[in-house]
Automatic annotation (TrEMBL), chain A:
Position of the signal peptide: none
Cited Gene3D superfamilies: 3.30.390.30, FAD/NAD(P)-binding domain
Official protein name in the record: Pyridine nucleotide-disulfide oxidoreductase
Entry GO CC: cytoplasm
Keywords, in A-Z order: FAD, Flavoprotein, Oxidoreductase
Cofactor: FAD
One annotated GO molecular function: oxidoreductase activity, acting on NAD(P)H
InterPro entries: FAD-oxidoreductase/Apoptosis, FAD/NAD-bd_sf, FAD/NAD-binding_dom, FAD/NAD-linked_Rdtase_dimer_sf, Reductase_C
Residue ranges annotated for the Reductase C-terminal domain, each copy included: 343-418
Species annotation: Dictyobacter vulcani
Residue ranges constituting the FAD/NAD(P)-binding domain according to the UniProt record: 14-319
Pfam family, any one: Reductase_C
Automatic annotation (TrEMBL), chain B:
GO molecular function, one term: monooxygenase activity
Native source organism of the sequence: Dictyobacter vulcani
Gene3D superfamilies, per the entry: Cytochrome P450
The name this protein goes by in its record: Cytochrome P450
Similarity-based family: Belongs to the cytochrome P450 family.
Amino acid sequence: MSNHSSQGLRKDEHIVIVGASLAGLRAAEALRRRDFAGQITIVGDEKYAPYDRPPLSKHVLTGHLPIEHTPLAMLEDVRATWILGVAATALDVEQRQLSLSNGERLHFDQLLIATGTRARPWPEERGGKLDGVFLIRDRDDSQQLRERLARKPGRVLIAGGGFIGCEVASVCRELDLEVTLVERGPTPLYGALGSSMGSIVARLQQQHGVDLRTRTTVESFEGDAAGRLCRARLSDGSVVEIDVAIVALGALHNTEWLQGSGLAADERGLVCDTYSRVLDAQGQVVEGIFTAGDVARWPQHLCDGDLIAVEHWGNAVDQAENAAGNMLSAETDYRAYKHIPAFWSSQFGINIKAVGLPNRGDEVMVTQGSVERYRFVAAYGRQGRIIAAVSFDQGRWLEAYNTLIEEGATYPPQLAAADQPENMQSQPAGFPAMARHA
Amino acid sequence: MTQKSKIDFKQILDHSHIANPYPLYAQFRETPVALQEDGSYLVSTYNEVVSLLHDPRISSDMRKSDAQKRFMQQAKQKREEMIAQGQQVEEPEEIVPAFIFQDPPNHDRLRRIVTSQLTPERVENMSSHIEQIVKEHLDKHAQGGQIDIVDDLAYPLPVTVICQLLGVPREDEAQFHAWAEPLASVLDPGQVQTEEQQKQIMQAGRQMREYMGQLLQKLKAQPGDNLLSGMMAADDIDGAMSPRELISTAVLLLIAGHETTVNLITNGTLAMLRSPELLERLRQDPELIITYVEELLRYDPPVHFRTRTALADIQIAGTTIPQGATIILVLASGSHDGQRFERSEELIPDRQGNEHLGFGSGLHYCVGAPLARVEAHIALGEISRRLIEPKLALDPPPYRDNAALRGPRHLPVNFKGLRS
């Protein structure tokens, strides 16, 4: 397959990328940057060219960033055929063929699967179709919600206190809207950061006037005769009068279309090896098919090669780069994917950043700064090693923690930092038992 | 393994290398982290310097270093002995270290107050003044002949600018000349050896602080649109600046304004007069000055090294720097690291991806960087544009003693006149 010519590599090869978002675009760019001279086709089920999702739950909702300004910068002329507004519906590994929702079939020599995730929907029978119930995943969702919030509705309810839920709660308070946040766990960000850090976020939210209801879930949304949302029934028996509800209950991996393909795909994601090559249901490598981004489940070196899917921006970029590089390499030159996850969020004026795998931590300890001021760094430990760190408005230190994580430095860390708190104490990180097997 | 090798920091301090320390740095980089005879560690490679500058385990507070603790202990003993002998001994003055010699969180508070006043707008508003000052200084030499770039432009310009920004009356500027140089010499351990020098530094410090205290009193009664008035009035969530903090911050900004930009402008003039081709390019393409100044900050920067203290044992580049050790970060060597910069020993005026260490990196990144850039852009732009047939009268020029804040003492240039 490999042939070098003065015009570039592999002129006669056709690489298809399924998924036209961050990972898909960055992969196409990486292929061209590495001199791939063949054909690239990018299939995406949304009608839009690749756009940036992080602002959808932040600046787009506040109105600071017009939705038209969200497209991703094209860093490279990818010279691709774009098939947008069309979903891949099936994969025939044997025939190297994709079926598309428009009825067409697409042949490929190599394939990159970057179909990502979608927002977990709210069941229709519990009010999911009412006017005023929103999800946030794509630009239409965000645009519609923006328009609704700009009309100064009455109370907004957010179901789910993960990052998206917390960010939207922050936006609502910034827009001076009444907001109720309903979270199943004991604190916001329970699944992402654990209840120890989560309780700090809870205090932050309460100080900003969020009506926080923890250990509570929404039973149902109810509407008026015209189908307009008007109240939510909660698991504690209370009823909240609301105009808008935002469902932020996490993401589902877009793998249904791979049923019957023989690949190791299920609701947890699509399994690949450390070179981003997908595996079949028997655990065998499938030649020429790679995956990257939110949908990929890969062996993470920080936790003994356990398979994890990392639904963060940085992972989409780095893994796309890894997959693209390996697609154009001989097997002997494959590079292993050794990514240390990192993510950020901004809420209530605080920039939260993390590196590593917080939800793999057993314990956590504030190592620098002041919790009271919401300016601090905390390190997570797992079996005596530092596995993650999170910072509140102190992102400047995370590079150093990243190095400690890479080196497998001991936990509790011996930093003796100038701004370490007086009574440093390691505490249970407080994660739900479920989060342990991501 | 730790190596006690030929990498010897004292060589930097030795004046014989001052005109061109870069070959020495190249030797240093063969051992990225090198233990010195006195127990300190010399760090010379880009990645290691950057990583330490971003590490929470290092401190900028000299009081935390073993060497400084020993020194303070000795000084205390000596005082006690003198008292025991019935001698009159002055109580040592309690000095608040300036924020570059402090750590978070107090450093952050002080720096926030400074940056809240040293705003982009304030810097931008200075640019027409800077143009005016440069013009005035150059116009004095309309007939050509000889100009000393240091005394006639590179030194007075930043001094006037920083005084104006801070709110120091221009007529008081001259007093600072005598104070600034001894105070800046504390950054170069090679220079502070005799008791006489120590005394001189202490005295300069005391006088400058006294002056500042009085000036602050005046500004308190009559605030103006300047940094000192702004810092005095500024509030911060963690508390305003105390009078002592105000004084040490003001002294720091004044010294920084006196002793750094002068070298950037002088080094920049030296480099362009050494290369007729470069000078011509700058004349043809005035926009090139932007990347040229960045390249200067990499290639021949005003600040060559800074020291830190390890707060914990730090493993780096196969060595463990023990807690309490002094770490010498040779920024100028990091900026010449061939692993990081292609053709690292060449001056490439349009270099891309130039993340030099000329202003440091991390939380102590030079707070005056935007001001230094504006001054250098304007001064170097005008020197290249206006001087007709400029030639170095002396190459290499004589250098000042300070190896940390390194630059020529004089840079005499012969030229035939000025373009308008």
